[in-house]
Structures are given as C-alpha cells and as structure tokens.
Specification:
Blueprint: E1 8-11, E2 14-17, H1 21-55, H2 60-65, H3 70-81, H4 85-99, H5 104-119, H6 122-140, H7 144-151, H8 157-170, H9 176-180, H10 189-205
Helix pairs in contact: 1-4, 3-4, 6-10, 8-10
C-alpha cells in the first residue's frame, strides 16, 4: 500500500510540510508582514488626507502653482464650500482617495508649498533681513542715506528722511534704567513704518510681492 503524499510547498528549494512547525512559523511571519503593510497603508492614507486638509488653507498664489489634476482641485474647492461636518468628512475622504493617486513629485510640491507659506521662501526671508539691516544702518549713520538713494532712487526721499528723524526721536533712552522700565523693547510707529517703506522698495526692485512678508514679531 502506497503512502499518501505529504501536502506542502517549497520555499527557496526547501520542502515545507503543511502543518509542520516550519509551516506555522512561515505563515505567522507572512501574516505579520501583511499586517504591517496594511497598517502602513492606512497610516499613509491618513497622512495624505491630512495633507489634503492642509491644502484648504494654502495661499491662493501657492495653490495655483501646484500641478494638481482638475478632479482634485474641484474636490478641494467643494470641501471649502461644505459646512456640514459629516458632509465635509466624506468629502475629505474623497480628497484622500484622489491624493493616493498622485505621484511622489506632486506630493513633494504640496509639502514644499505649505512649508513656504509657514516659513517663507528663501527670497522672502532674504528681503526681510535686508530691510532690517538697512533700517539699522539708516538709523545709526547719516552716511547710509545717500547709499540707499543711490541703490533705490525711486524712494520718496522726503518721506524716508521724516521716518528716520521720527524713529530716532522715538528711540527709548539707553541704559539700565530704560531696560528696567520696560522701554528698551518698545519701538515707535515711525520705526515700523520705516521698515515697511524699505521692504516695499526692496520688493519692487526684485519684482517680489510686497504683501507676503511682515515684520518679525519681536519688533
């Protein structure tokens, strides 16, 4: 009487009998791997949906630059119009589904746009620093005014001189007494307006939008 063939399968040339200890081990490993993959996919899906949610607050000029398919643009626009909680939740699930169809380059572009909105572009940050540096130079040294006018002849000289004079006049007294009275951190209106004027001229020279940047909070 012939023996019944043992059921099983081969893994890398090795026969694994069904129900054997090795079979149980391999099945457990396979299930664990599949479970991790499902978890990873679920986590990735949630992250993409959250990214889509963030896009709803993206500045219009940055959003317009993104290479998004029309279906996703329309879905995001619809999500902005929906006020009902449950309706918005379902719409964002649909947005998440569309997001999963995008390539990595588009996803990276989205994240870069959001980062630019939160932190400013390199050009924007450079402009802010330049305006701050020029303001300090103009307030500290009369010789800085001719240098500024030579580089930015379109500036209203009368307005610039007036702001410099007023900012100097408003400057708190130096010394420990002023610091102890809380005067040192305070800046007058002319000090802030001088920054705005310088920033506007720098932005015009570099053909950058003048609306993106604001003076740092510590000012």
């Amino acid at each position: 009487m012939s023996r019944k063939p043992t059921r099983g399968y081969y893994v890398k040339g090795q026969f694994v009998a069904a129900g054997s200890e090795l079979d149980v081990q391999l099945q457990a490993e396979r299930k664990g791997t599949q479970g991790a993959s499902r978890t990873d996919r679920k986590r990735e899906s949630a992250a993409l949906q959250a990214l889509g949610e963030d896009l709803l607050g993206l500045r219009a000029d940055l959003f317009a630059r993104l290479p998004l398919p029309d279906a996703l643009r329309d879905a995001l626009a619809e999500a902005q119009r929906i006020t009902n909680f449950e309706g918005r939740r379902r719409q964002m699930q649909y947005v998440g589904k569309l997001m999963r169809q995008l390539d990595a380059a588009t996803i990276d572009a989205m994240r870069a746009a959001l980062d630019e909105q939160h932190n400013g572009s390199a050009a924007e940050n450079q402009l802010l620093h330049a305006a701050e540096q020029w303001r300090e130079r103009l307030l500290a040294d009369d010789a800085a005014l001719p240098a500024w006018m030579a580089a930015h002849p379109a500036t209203d000289t009368q307005q610039l001189r007036a702001l410099i004079r007023q900012a100097r006049k408003d400057a708190p007294p130096a010394g420990q007494v002023a610091v102890s009275q809380g005067l040192a951190p305070r800046k007058g209106r002319a000090y802030r307006e001088l920054f705005q004027l310088l920033r506007a001229q720098l932005a015009a020279r570099d053909a950058l939008p003048n609306s993106f940047a604001s003076e740092p909070e510590h000012e």
